[in-house]
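Two folds, back to back.
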Amino acid sequence: MINRLGLFIVLVMFVLIQTGCAEQSTRMSLNSSNPRVIWEVKPQADLENITGEQISTPEFKMSDYVKGVVPGTVFTAYVEAGIVPDPNYADNIYKVDETFYNRPFWYRTEFELPSSYSEGKRVWLHFDNTNRFADFYFNGEKISGTKTSTKDVSGHMLRSKFDVTNLVKKSGKNVIAVLITDADQKKTRKAKDPYGVACSPSYLAGAGWDWMPYVPGRLAGITGNAYLVVTGDVVMEDPWVRSELPTLQKAELSVSTDIRNASSSPKEVVVSGVIQPGNISFSKDIRVEGGTTARLSINKDDIAQLVVDHPKLWWPNGYGDPNLYTCKLTCSVDGKVSDVKEMTFGIKKYEYKMVDNVVGYPVLTFFINGQKIYLKGGNWGMSEYLLRCQGKEYETKIRLHKEMNYNMIRLWTGCVTDDEFYDYCDKYGIMVWNDFWLYVAYNDVAQPEAFKANALDKVRRLRNHPSIAIWCGANETHPTPDLDNYLREMIAKEDNNDRMYKSCSNQDGLSGSGWWGNQPPRHHFETSGSNLAFNTPAYPYGIDHGYGMRTEIGTATFPTFESIKKFIPQKDWWPLPTDEQLKNDDDNVWNKHFFGKEASNANPVNYKNSVNTQYGESSGLEEFCEKAQMLNLEVMKGMYEAWNDKMWNDAAGLLIWMSHPAYPSFVWQTYDYYYDPTGAYWGAKKACEPLHIQWNASNNNIKVINTTAKDLKGAIAKAAIYNLNGKEVPAYGQAKQVGVAASNIAEAFSLNFNPFNLAYGKKAVASSSTGASKSASMVTDGGAGSRWESAYSDPQWIYIDLGKEEKIEKAILKWEAACAKKYELQVSNDAQEWKTVYANKDGRGGTEQIELEPVTARYVKLAGISRATQFGYSLFEFEIYGEKPKEIKELTPLHFIKLELTDVKGNLISENFYWRNGVNDLDYTLLNTLPEADLSCRLVDKSMSDGKMKIAVKNNSETVAFANRVRLVNKATQKRILPIIMSDNYATLMPGEEKVITMEATPELLKGGVSVLVKQYGKAEKNKLDIAD
């Protein structure tokens, strides 16, 4: 996958690490990005009876080879060579003969030593990752395992390092041959043999999932960096800098590394280091016997400078700066540098507590540097389904997560093996929930010892990264006892329990997995969807207090029309598959991209019907995609805001399934495969902002969310309500001063969309209730989702105190399914003597509108005589009406909510926007009747050399300009400018309103100038501004 943001990989063939003396350590890349290195790939079967010893000689010529891609896979090499049609497009990848790739392949390359090499040096050959099995040969000799062994290196996370000093040719060609063997399981796409976790350690998604297809070869190949390193006889391995934080003002550092003496004689070794910032210098001597490895450790008892006053701490995104330190280690023998290692680390302290929620269930809660952290983020499967994401392209992806205001990525089943992923998580303050390679399956790991070796290498390789927040044994299950115990004990030893080891990704203090199908925001505010009946302690499905720490919840997510055109053939654009096809059809191209039965978890039928019923039927794919973005935005924002609403009362964080796409598809993503942000991206970005104001779609409550480490004081929360014509209706708005403690929430006020309801906000008293969340007050809160529930017996009653005598002409009862079969309405002025004004002997539930003879009273009672079900009386709202005040204007059925949060100086901190139908919930079809607005666009500021600009979009009309999408295209090429970082999109502008949007892209993409295209919802896209480069 090409990174068009321009965060491109800079080729460095020879890395010379200056050490302050004449000696240097040399590293030579053997990746395909080195133009002097060409990898040749060919099936082993085509080289029958030819040995690795023969293949790894200069005399051998590999005819009819395919040019390999390193890092990469065998299948990717054939794709890049054009032998396989674009696997992204249509159903191309499903037509590939997988049996051709599901077999062993040879890799072969030649190289010459760099001119900087000098006699007497050690030469090391490194392969960071190979999948699934590998056997290595060099200059005619087998260098892995034994002469007769096979599948010597087992697992995709195991590093291979070979001392080839005695084999390397100082001049002329050196030859490497690697035999890559694919996994033993799932040899064909439709094979019935279980894949599961039996092939682990491997890229488990390679056999297909409900978001990426089966990949021929199952991602077998040289999947990590290959390189040559020239050193002295003594090298350092797995250096590690630990930090302890007794207080926030003092850090205690310790440094350790293995020292390997590759020679046969003992060596007196001096290890020196420098930590920056702070210029902390240290050194220590150690004697290492020939052919052995010794562990060297340095701490505050050795070097007082390793106690750092006022350290710069690493913080997750939103809570502070992700400060990083570097440590450069040099080991010397006899005054000459033998090896140099440089690593990056962060000073931080992770803590974890099981904190009981309001009903006493334990919720796993994260603390960093003493600060309680509310988790916001997403799941990440494969970086790219063919492993074509490399190097600095990771910066693009992680930066997009940072821009969504996330602070955590869950690395599902540990499917990323590239160090750069962690490097950029460190840089941008994104914590990593780091799984191992296990998930719910019906078979065990076929090679547990290989699993253990890979797990050990993973921890040693990655433990310096401050972004790693937790190690997790398995997805949605527990590892077998043997592996579970091994992982726990190994992590305690190798990571010193600096990070928690957790066996299971969704149990034991976590609140399960799901929902996965599209659900409206109100649904998420009203029910947690927890599915932990099997948890310890157990609690039932759908419990009110089951939000907790959720590691998976998601929905189908349609990409933009411009992206869909790149992978769905035009002949298949319209009409969309029928409901029946979505449920049962294997072969249509939509299903191949996971809008169909292959992604039934995402409930594509519900998704399609939600778009059609909420926003209206479409006449073509482009119109459907536009409407789908509104659903994406609303649903994604609603999920996060529902968890925000319960912060610390019940919820400790939310990770959606998924935030990052690996394949062009219609599920589990925020931005799409081509980096075009969907509405889901903008919904997540808004809901996860560090200081945030939000509306509860269930009870109309307005809350302010603070996910920072600083208190917010003296802020003003404001809500303005607009009719469909864009006119503000002041009677429905409110404003209030609010303060919010660090990492906490505060209620500002509740909106009353029915000021004619005399019962709103008034005191309610009931004969019984089944709990605080179903108390009598629920019937007067104006919320469509909250309800009163009585005891399961007759009779029961509930009355409302209007506060003073009022003229009453009408009552509305909004029942849940458990309604009254027989009841009376009664009135009183003292709550002692009651008069019956209405009786119903055949209640049917639903919404009952009851016209009354005008009567004056202070108290109104619903007296339940007999229930219609076995359950208690269950009432959403008990509304009471008299004469409508003439000074209050009624809202149009569809109206808009605009929220603003400003600081004490009046500066805007957060704004939010919603559309609501107060008559027919979720019916937004009136948006299609909005007239076209007069929009203009102007350039506020630009710095094209930096790829940054600001534009302002203004609504010059007297009507609403709803959901205006802004996108950039290159004037010269007419191609979309992607990836691009934007501050906002799909913004609604009220009459006369102007919004400034900041943008950032690689300068290379802007050459030739750009056109700014603006599309108002339901209207034609127009070029509103041209910007020269």
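---
second:
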Amino acid sequence: MNEFHRQRLGKNAVVLLLVMSAARCCQAFNLDVRFPVVKEGKTAGSLFGLSVALHEQLVGEKRHLLLVGAPKEKAESQMSANETGDVYACPITIDPKDCKRLNLLSSDPDSIPNHANDMMDGMWLGVSLASQSQPGGRVLACGHRYIRKMSTNLRMIGKCYVRGNDLKYNQADHQWQSNKEVCDPTNNHEREGMCLAGMSAAITQTEIFLGAPGCFDWQGNTISQWHNPADNYDDIKNKIRDLDRRNIYIGYSIAVGRGVLSKDKITVVTGAPRDEARGSVMMGEVHKGSPEGEVKIKATVTGEQVGSYFGSSVAIVDLNNDGWKDLIVGAPFYFDRRNDGKGGAVYVYMNQGGSFSDKADVVLTGPKDSAFGMAVVAIGDVNQDGFQDFAVGAPYHSTGRVSIWMGSKLGISQTPSQVIDGKDIPGGGFHTFGYSISGGVDVDRNSYPDIAVGSLDDRVVLLRARPVIHLKSYLTVTPEVIKPEECDDCIEAKVCLSYTFSTTSASSQKSITFQYTVEADQQSSRSPRVQFLDDKVSKHTGEMSVAASEVCRSLKLKLVSKTIQDKVAPIVFLLSVSLVEPVPSSGQKLEDINAFPVISQKDAQPKRAEIHIQKACGSDNKCESNLQMTAAFTDEQNTPFPTRNGQQIFLYTTDVKKLKLMVNVSNVPSQDRIAEDAYSAFLNVTFPTSLSFSSVNPKILICEPSDGAVLCTLGDPFKSHQSVEFEIIFETTGITIGMQEIQTELRLSTRSDQNDLRPLSRVLMVDYELKPFFILSNQFNTEFSGKVKAESAMKSTSDIGSPVEFNLTVSLSEKPLGNLGYLEVVFQWPYAVANQKWLLYLSEIQMTGTSKPFCVPENNVVNPLNLDVSERKTRRRKRDVSYLKSEQTLPKMQAQRKPANLDCDSGRALCQTFTCPLLGMDTSANLTVRARVWNSTMLEDYKGAGVFVTGRATLSLKTDKPSIRMSNNTREFTVAIDPAEGGELRYEVPLWIIIVSALAGVILLGLIVILLWKCGFFKRANTRELYEAKAQKAELKTQPSENDRLTEED
């Protein structure tokens, strides 16, 4: 049971986090909000306003009442319950606190609740209300949470009360007013033990219809109780059978009427908002039987979004007056994932002769989190235009909102005819305005039905419909054509007004005052050309009191000046009319709404009339021009660009800063057209972002640039037999590599008659010519010397001979090529002499500014012998450095023989052709080419003579874009090789050989010392033994021998 509260009321916890109120989408129509009838509940928190109904009382007292349900109202004093709910009857007065409680539970003294069997606490009496539409009709009120005690079981079956036209219990009407249970409390929730009858309700002349969404384990049901008008004791209950479909809530909402599926039979329309999680609306017919009949489902429409609660509110109303009632379904929890600003939806299904399509004809949506569609109600023909209308409540949009849609022959538009916000109600204090709505009853007897709007704020409001006036307004201006030189105050505007009411009951109005406003030439871009004589301005406002007959008024105007620049544009007059309303009363009594009529929306539109100024264009005053145009692109020297296949070609380089568009416009007669003045003649030129407007020549022509366009004024008028030639100058700063074309469009316009004006397209094909900078030092000097060395003896490039190194620099002034192509350097490299001996040995090619650090061509061109590259060491040897000369230094040929020229073209040198692509280059790249002069070849073949070696480097473009081109840039380089001065140069032993030799010498010396030590070379006689021997010899006094003497001397 609490789930229902969460869906209809507990939703507040989410949707009260609202967006700010959106701007009003339309102006008010005839539902009045200035003089509302506001009523307040007696008890705070009673939900006074959860349901509302308009009731006409004819028994006892003739009056109209506003019935309001308060399902959480305190219980009557004699009831042993806290909250039972009840219904209040509110008279149509200005007193907000004069509503009276009906005390339905105790109104029948014979059926006061028995506390042993009835649990009335929390029964929510007043959750649904209905009034019979027939004169003297009864009222119906239900409490769906009424519990019947069955021994130890509690059955929440719901209970409804019917009371007479005077809202009292009438014993004579016991067939209707007796409290019969429509659900069987003897069964559990799988049958009817939890049926919640009365959550929705409707009443006709012969039947009561109750929604019971809890039947059959929340499948739900729609129960019809038919009363036989001829027999007070004959009634039949009709129900939907158990469809074996659980938790879909059939009966959540209900509407009944004829003309839905059948012209004659009543159709029951009921919502099941949880059917397949998307919701559905079922339409069935009552088949009476004995003792119990059946409501058979004949048609069903289903929702489109899970959780939208499609079917939580329903209404049936004939919107297009075709005799068939159309279906309106609310889905208040709908949301649009793609448009976060939408929340809640209403689906309109147009009746197709007793059937409905699966897809809605119109889907209306409300603001986010607004619960748009919580209430959808047929409200009668509010504006009396012959078509029924309906209202939609969005209680959680700001302070709440009600939108009114008017029916029409064409159906329903997306825009409502009137929007009323809760904050618009003076003294309303609403926060959930629009939670419930009732309409279709004329409470103030002016023939326009009024509506009641409820809320969850313990307050309701009655909004009365204002009478609608059908206004007939006429505006005529004479003369139709004026001659400025003959017109002083010759212009006359005539305004005529008359009206009728949309109903005959309001036609007794004697006189109505209208305010009218005539605007003359207000739409002109220039100052108004005419003004009213009395007002001295071009706008006049006045009042006219109109009764039964038409009233007219004439107004005089004059030209502001006899010299009129704009003779083509008509002088337009606009008439707008509004009502002058009387001053409201002091507020001590209910305002008479008939004193405040409103003009019908379709009649409130401004009326239009126009006159023309005589031009020099013949008796018909229509100028037929013959504007013709040619255009072509030229360079800054006015030379047209060449054409190819009918299109001009522009060879663009960064040196080209501007280009011109030469335009010729003429207005001269041709064979089939005359050439009268072309008024307001303009030329509009649109161009791409690659061009920017610079200027126009001649300067007397006025051209105004805008974003991507320039508008030139040719003349007003551009005279007959006139022609003009001018040039529009553009800057080319936006042209980029890869741009294939520049497309412009020229469009002539004039206010004169000429129906053959067509836009002229001019396309300039762009051929982009790259002009990169390619720098190469073209003169180098080096030497050769030493001895002939075999190729097999060479381990590193330093063994070959003198080094040669030069740099190539490539740079672009334009933007990088990117994926449009790349540049490459093609070398013709003199690697050998004619006898195939090595000449210039290529060591390496280092690159910077590219995606690869080295150029490695195919066919093993670089370092083919795979020698160690000495150039990669951090320090270049002094000997190598001494060979590199500045490119400004001229070679000194020391040889006595004539120098030899070795080049590829003569065949004296053999050349290899290879390519270094500059991939990934941004705007610049650098190549460092390192090579060695083959010293042995020089010594063998050119000893005593100088040698000039010549090669080539060519910069070229590789691209598949035909619009990008570049001329190949070829640079020659020459290496001058001389014998070294002063004979052979001393060959320096490499450092590593010196270090290794020194270490080897140290090791060898160590080995020799160890060997001598092992042989005893370093052993000597012991000194002590020597002294002892000498002592013995002294004692013996012997003469020393010759050997001893020699030893002693030592």
